[in-house]
C-alpha cells in the first residue's frame, strides 16, 4: 500500500476544504439521486410493475419491503468498505461507491417486469437493490471523513454538512425527475416511462467520477499513515476502543426513520384511495421541502460550530417527533395547503437540524485511523432499522393503510434513542482535529503498522 507522506501537523492546502466539500456535495447529490428515485418508484410504480398479481395493499407492502432491502445490505457494506476506507484512504472508496451505485441503478431500469418473466422479476429487483445498499453504505461515511479531515477545526460542522445537503440535493433532483414521469399516461408510465430516471444513472456515474478522481487524500489520513501506519484490522480497534460511540451512532442514526417515513410511506398514504391526493402534488411537497432543507442544513451546521453539536442535534431529533405527527395529521385531512406547510416545516426545517449536524457529530467521536469504519458501521446499522421502518409503518397502518396516528407514534418512538444518544455523548465542536476520539489512557496508543 502506498500513501503520500505529509509532514507532522500539516493542514489542508488552501482551497482544498472547499474542493472537498464541493466534491462531497456533488457526489452525494448524484449518488443519492439514484437511491431516492427507487423510493419514489417503490411507492408509486413498482407495486403494479413487479407485484401486479397481488392485491393492491399486499403489492404496496412487498414493494416497500424491497426499499428496505438495501438498508439490510448496508451493515455488510459498511463492514467491508469501512475496513478498506481506513486502510486505503477515503478517496478510493468515494470513487468506488459512486460507480457501483450508477451501475446498479442503470440495471434496475433494464429489468424485465413480472408480466414478462414472472417471479424472477422481483428477485432481480432485490439483487440490484442490494448493490445499491452496499454502495450507499460507504458513500456518506467516506465523503463525511473526507470533508471533516480537510476542514478548518472551527468550521467542521459547516463543511461536513455539505455531504448531507448534497444528499438532499439528490433527493430534490430525483423528485423533480419523477414529477413529469408520474404525470405520463398510465400505459406509457408502466410500460417504459418509469425506466427513464434509472437510465440517467449513466450520466450520474460519469460526472461523479470526473469530480472525485481529482480530489486529494486528506492530510489527517496521510499523516496517520506516514507516522503511525494504519491498523491491520481497523474494525478490531474500533470495537475495542470505541464500542460505546458505535452504539451512540447506531442509536442516533435511527432519526433517519423520519426521512424514510416522510419520503416513502407518507407518499404512498397520501396518494392512496384513503386520502386521494395526486402523485404530482405530493411529489411537489417533497421537492419544496428539500429546497428549504438545502438552505437550512448549512445554517444549522454553522450554528453547531458556535454552540455545539448536541443542542442542535437534539432540536432536530425531538422536534421531528412532534412535527411528523403534525405532518401525517395534515395528510389525513386531505388539505393540500396544510400538508405542504407542515411538510416544509417538518422535513425542510426541523429534521434538517439533526440531518445537518450528524456528519460532524458522529465523525468527531472517532480517531482518524477508525473514523470511516466507525461512522460507516454505526450509521448503516441504524439506517438499516430506519429503512425497514417503512415496512413496519405499512403494517402498523392496518389493513386499509390509513391509521396515520399509529405511524406517527411509531415514528416518535424511533426518535427517542437519538435523543438519548445525544444527551450521553461528549461535546466535541471545540476539540482539535488531531485530538478527536482520544480517551484517557488511549490517546497515546499506537496502532499496528502496515508497511508501505
Q: Report the order of strands and helices.
A: HHHHHHHHHHHHHHHHHHHH
The strand count comes to 0
Distance between the termini: 5 Å
Helix content: over 70%
Structure annotation, total helices: 20
What is the mean pLDDT? Answer: 85
Large-scale geometry = globular
Overview of this structure, please?
By secondary structure, the chain is an all-alpha fold. The protein contains 20 helices and no strands. The protein is globular. The N and C termini lie close together (5 Å). 58% of the residues are buried.
Features:
MFS_dom, globular, cell membrane, 452 residues, single chain, disordered N terminus
Which helices and strands, and how do they pair?
Blueprint: H1 16-44, H2 46-49, H3 56-88, H4 90-110, H5 114-117, H6 120-150, H7 156-182, H8 186-191, H9 196-199, H10 201-212, H11 219-227, H12 234-241, H13 243-253, H14 257-270, H15 279-307, H16 309-333, H17 336-363, H18 371-396, H19 404-414, H20 416-424
At a glance:
The protein has about 450 residues and is mainly α. It has 20 helices and no strands.
